Amino acid sequence: MKKSIHSYAWIKVWTPKAAGDVAPKAAAKGFNHVVIPMRDHSTIHPADIARIFGSHDLTPVATATQIADADISSLDPEIRRRGMDRHRASLRLARDMGAYHMGGIIYGLFGKAGNAATDENRKAAAEALAILAAEAKTMGVRLAMEILNRYETSMFNTVADAVAFLKMSSSDNLFLHLDTFHMNMEETDMMAALKRALPYLKYFELDQNDRGLLDRGAIDFGPMLRFLKENDYSEIIGAEAFSSAVSGPDVARGVSAWRPLFSNGDEVADSANAV
To answer: What are the tens digits of pLDDT across the range 139-154?
Structure first.
């Protein structure tokens, strides 16, 4: 079983020493993959990550981002070019740390949008990701798009729209990442959405309705996990949670982690294992 946990369960923000802090804790709780957010490339030391993770039999999972002046969904050619360059830098880091999966909000900006994305924005992003996915394939890395709720992106919010985007890209190395927190907000039928996503699904992330501990909350993961097992799903299953007691200020603002839902990542790991 490919079982992943987000490093932010234990740390406020990724730093050069974070691999040494997180790796032994994740491994001790039985995880074999750990998410590394590549918000700030200067903090990512791939050789150290590869060495430390390797010593704990862990595989890094990279998540990449775009920023306001480097965004592949922009209709400004220069901003779009810088977005491509940023992703290429992320891909090199992912490859060098030993990751085979780079996911996240790779198709545009994260955060509440001021207006709806246009078909032109989606077309620009799909074309860019098709190129990047082809380049990633030569590095042994696949790309997976996380589908977010309406408050965190206006590009697409449902599996149906994300699948349409995938078909627009025509890439054989671009896949889906589902997060139950976002599905719970946007899908009218979570099981139907999961079934539709299954042919493209490479990361299924457990995330409760309040983004707190996974074994307490409104989302029943059982039916979805049983469906995946019955259909021989063999890709990554991840655990994610956020708490004001742990999250750094930038992370807390980004995901609105205003309450202390847990005090230590061990609680997240234990709740994920219980589920």
So the answer is: 999 999 999 999 999 9
Angle (deg, nearest 10), helices 18-28 and 46-55: 20
Contact 242, 211 (CB under 8 A): yes
Q: What is the pTM of this model?
A: 0.98
Residue spans per domain, the chain = 3-274
How far apart are alpha carbons 50 and 58 in whole angstroms?
9
> 3-274 sits in which CATH class?
alpha beta
Task: Pick left, alpha or beta for residue 177 (phi over 0 → left; psi -120 to 50 → alpha; otherwise beta).
Answer: beta
The type of residue at 249 is P
Q: Tell me, what's the pLDDT at 116?
A: 97
Distance, in Å, from the CA atom of 174 to the CA atom of 127, rounded to the nearest integer, reads 12
